[in-house]
User: Fold this.
Amino acid sequence: MISSSLLLILALKMVAGLLADRVFGEVRRFHPLVGFGRWAGWVERGCRRLFYGSNETGTRIAGVLGWALAVLPWVGIVLWLRSVHPHAHWVVDVGLLYLALGGRSLVEHAQAIAVPLAAGNLAEARTRVGRIVSRDTRALDAEGVAKAATESVLENGNDAVFGALFWFVVAGGAGALLFRLANTLDAMWGYRTPRHLHFGWAAARIDDVLNLLPARLTALTYALLGHRRRALACWRSQAPGWNSPNAGPVMAAGAGALGVRLGGAAIYHGREEVRPPLGEGRAPDVAAIHGALALVRRGTWLWLGAVAVLGVLRSAAAVGGA
Assistant:
């Protein structure tokens, strides 16, 4: 069990990391994840050469090896850096949490869609939303743009904020780094394309496992901060029909909390996919995008406050017990 002092230290580090993300946002030049992407590409090519001509099982083993070689050395380096000085953990943990978070970036991307959409500039809104979703956005109407943006904000609230915070609480900077790198590899290798159908199996499954608890805590956060009963009902009835075990609860609860209808048909790689419905209520619009951002922002404060309050209560209990 985490001690009261560690909880308070975690809260302070979370404040520092969140503040750094708020002030500086995403690294503009020489982003570490760009370098990691190149490293992962080199690892993939090496593993494919090593297992050249393998069957499905061999290709999956190559993917497991590739994931381990791509991620674990960096986690080991972080653990070593935290041990080089008694206070090194402050710099390492805060720095890695800052790099793992994408809260300000999420707001910037969403606002870049919401502003032209509100002004009636549908072409610009389509272009902007196309930068953050994988579906074809060229023929989307205003409702389709708002739907894609709202879904992206809700899902990335978990991937870019709450998942990183969860693993930071569990394992400090090393946990935040592990989550972010695993999430990045899922984005690189996890799609069911002919190239990555088997090689990316491990990356997709590991990301699912790492997101299992954070996604459900994110869904619960959305429910607590919105229309609670509707959010929980949508989570219970709609999430099982979604093709992702973690995105389903997050987006169903988020849509229910906001009182909007998401999901439905969308075009991916030239093919229409009819996805299960999410939420209930009005059609999504600019207000839904802002509402999703508000859920993420207020949820961040809720998580931070929960860690801080738990630390204070445990500290008070320890003093009282003495």
The longest strand covers residues 271-279.
